[in-house]
Amino acid sequence: MEVMADEARAGERDFNQRTIDEFRANGGKVGGQFEGFPLLLLTAIGAKSGQPRTTPTGYFDIDGHVYIVGSSAGRDRDPAWAFNIRAHPEVTVEIGADPPKNATARELPRDERDSVYPRIVERAPGFGEYEKRTDRVIPIFELVLS
User: Fold this and answer.
1) Angle of helix 110-123 relative to helix 126-133, nearest 10 degrees?
2) Amino acid 12: pLDDT
3) What is the mean pLDDT of the chain?
4) What residue numbers bound the domain in which 68 lies?
5) How would DSSP label each residue in 17-85?
6) Smallest Cα–Cα separation from 72: which of 23, 12, 115?
């Protein structure tokens, strides 16, 4: 079982690296499953490793605020990047062809999260499906750009 889990993690890392490379080579544009969806690159310091970790993630610009959602596609565990930014909220964000910007990640408190999540589901209904797949509260983080 652990070998299969290791292979799945390696496959996900490879997929993420290809997406990161495509994003950077094409001024923030990627094809495949992310085509046409707002995507950013989030670089955070690993909670355990202390090493920088870059992850492509969808984002939502709502009323001038940039939000990322720790949906993990409805899995029962938050994505690794959520653990990282909880431990180290100072991050770097790449959006489009713009140079990387420093930001602070702020996890929304439950009431604020509950008011934003329906607006996210309006724009991307798959997030409603993710919420149905898990018992955990899917976290939302605001990226406050410096």
Assistant:
1) 130
2) 79
3) 92
4) 2-145
5) HHHHHHHHHTTT---GGGTTS-EEEEEEE-TTT-SEEEEEEE-EEETTEEEEE--GGG-SS--HHHHHH
6) 12
Q: Are 129 and 74 in contact (CB under 8 A)?
A: yes
Which strand (E) or helix (H) includes residue 133?
Answer: helix 126-133
Q: Specify the 3-state DSSP secondary structure of 132.
A: helix
The pLDDT of 83-102, averaged and rounded, is 97
pLDDT, mean of residues 60-67: 97
Residue 49 sits in a domain whose CATH number is 2.30.110.10
Query: Predicted confidence band at 34 (pLDDT cuts at 50, 70, 90)?
Result: confident
Q: How many Cβ atoms from other residues are within 10 Å of residue 55's Cβ? A: 19
pTM: 0.90
Instruction: Count how many domains the chain has.
Output: 1
Q: How far apart are CA 134 and CA 74, in angstroms?
A: 6
Is 50 exceeded by the pLDDT of residue 1? no
The SS3 of residue 98 is: coil
Structure tokens of 84?
Answer: 């990282």
Which amino acid is it at 53? R
Among candidate residues 77, 104, 79, the one with its CA nearest the CA of residue 92: 104
